[in-house]
Amino acid sequence: MRRWWKRIAYFCFDAPCTVECPTSIDIPLFIRQISTGNDMGAAKTIFAQNILGGMCARVCPTEILCEEACVRMEAEGKPVKIGLLQRHAIDRFIETKPSNLAVRPPDTGKRVAVVGGGLAGLSCAHWLAELGHAVTLFDARPKLGGLNEYGIAAYKTVDGFAQAEVDFVLSVGGITVEMGKALGRDITLAGLKADYDAVFLGMGLAGVNALKMEGEYLDGVLDAIDFIAGLRQAEDLSTLPVGRRVVVLGGGMTAIDIAVQIKRLGAEEVTIAYRRGADDMKASRFEQELALTNGVTIRHWMKPAVLLGGGGRISGIVL
Length: 319
What we know:
This protein is an alpha/beta fold and 319 residues long. It contains 15 helices and 9 strands. The strands form 3 sheets. It has a 4-stranded parallel β-sheet, with helices on both faces. It starts with a helix and ends with a strand.
């Protein structure tokens, strides 16, 4: 019986793992390819659906998507480690063949402007270039990558992988990059429409939810995404502001990221305060356990009521 379930996991008829994958990767196929020693073929299967599969394998909550849907969960209570297998295949490919797998066809003569060098913009630029179109990729920041470069905790993306993946995506050719160009400041939609055959806007969703509380603009009240961005780009981590006692408001992946990151940077006490219960947290159980094993305290049913401060700086919070 045990062998039958293992075989079904790799030769699923309807592949519930693929159904649950946001990018519809043929998961049973790439696992079979790895099992036969064909790591390069497995990577190509992944890239066919998700050219940014390397970072996806590092940060995607597979435990609540493809792995939770794995048929082995019902038989054995544990899934095939899909995320780790995907990471293995992608890393092997990039290590042995760092240039892109695509052979770009002759230029079609069409020019496309892509605004935003994050996940959407990079993916769009790659597929357009693979079709033979000339692409100009604009981004307001000094580096491409979007959240992969500026919004994911540093401990999840070590050794400069975010930029290595960007280089891999661009290696298809036919993509010109213009950094420091913001829409509405340096370029306009009307100008792009006049100069290009098509325009793709992929600027993302900047900013975080406002607290809408008096005191939210006091010194010491930090935007988690901005802090992580500063951390990712900092040459000297000792220059970062790290409090001794820190409260993180929220229950999603970003809350876990910033809490663990702050704790690893030396904060003495880090508490995640979430206004609902554990089952309502957007962060997966795995991420919650990661926070706990790093010394972070998670407290539920804690809604922020008052931010306390003096002299323009935060001094406390009432929950």
